[in-house]
From TrEMBL:
<dbReference type="InterPro" id="IPR012340">
    <property type="entry name" value="NA-bd_OB-fold"/>
</dbReference>
<keyword id="KW-0694">RNA-binding</keyword>
<dbReference type="GO" id="GO:0019843">
    <property type="term" value="F:rRNA binding"/>
</dbReference>
<dbReference type="InterPro" id="IPR000266">
    <property type="entry name" value="Ribosomal_uS17"/>
</dbReference>
<dbReference type="GO" id="GO:0006412">
    <property type="term" value="P:translation"/>
</dbReference>
<dbReference type="InterPro" id="IPR019979">
    <property type="entry name" value="Ribosomal_uS17_CS"/>
</dbReference>
<keyword id="KW-0689">Ribosomal protein</keyword>
<keyword id="KW-0687">Ribonucleoprotein</keyword>
<dbReference type="GO" id="GO:0022627">
    <property type="term" value="C:cytosolic small ribosomal subunit"/>
</dbReference>
<comment type="subunit">
    <text>Part of the 30S ribosomal subunit.</text>
</comment>
<dbReference type="GO" id="GO:0003735">
    <property type="term" value="F:structural constituent of ribosome"/>
</dbReference>
<protein>
    <recommendedName>
        <fullName>Small ribosomal subunit protein uS17</fullName>
    </recommendedName>
</protein>
<keyword id="KW-0699">rRNA-binding</keyword>
<comment type="function">
    <text>One of the primary rRNA binding proteins, it binds specifically to the 5'-end of 16S ribosomal RNA.</text>
</comment>
<comment type="similarity">
    <text>Belongs to the universal ribosomal protein uS17 family.</text>
</comment>
<dbReference type="InterPro" id="IPR019984">
    <property type="entry name" value="Ribosomal_uS17_bact/chlr"/>
</dbReference>
<dbReference type="Pfam" id="PF00366">
    <property type="entry name" value="Ribosomal_S17"/>
</dbReference>
Length: 87
């Protein structure tokens, strides 16, 4: 069992929108929600700051992040893997 399977931490997938900070990436995660009355699906997005210890991510990469203990004021996520590198 891996660390992410045995815990109840949230795992999200998103796109890196900024990697300018040292050991930090900003990941934009999109979700689809259904409107309660009209039943139309609406895209919602939120940005998360995640820890990237090796500075290996670049803008446009698709990554998977996991919930983690607080590392700074806004950084509570950790990079798990890079799923797809940007061209």
């Amino acid at each position: 069992m891996t660390e992410e399977n045995k815990s109840n931490r949230r795992v999200l997938t998103g796109v890196v929108v900024s990697s300018k900070n040292d050991k930090t990436i900003v990941v934009r995660v999109e979700t689809l929600i259904q409107h309660p009355l009209y039943k139309k699906f609406i895209r919602r997005h939120k940005k998360f700051m995640a820890h990237d210890p090796a500075n290996e991510c670049g803008m446009g990469d698709t990554v998977r992040i996991i919930e983690h203990r607080p590392l700074s004021r806004r950084k509570r996520w950790h990079l798990v893997q890079i799923m797809e590198k940007a061209v």
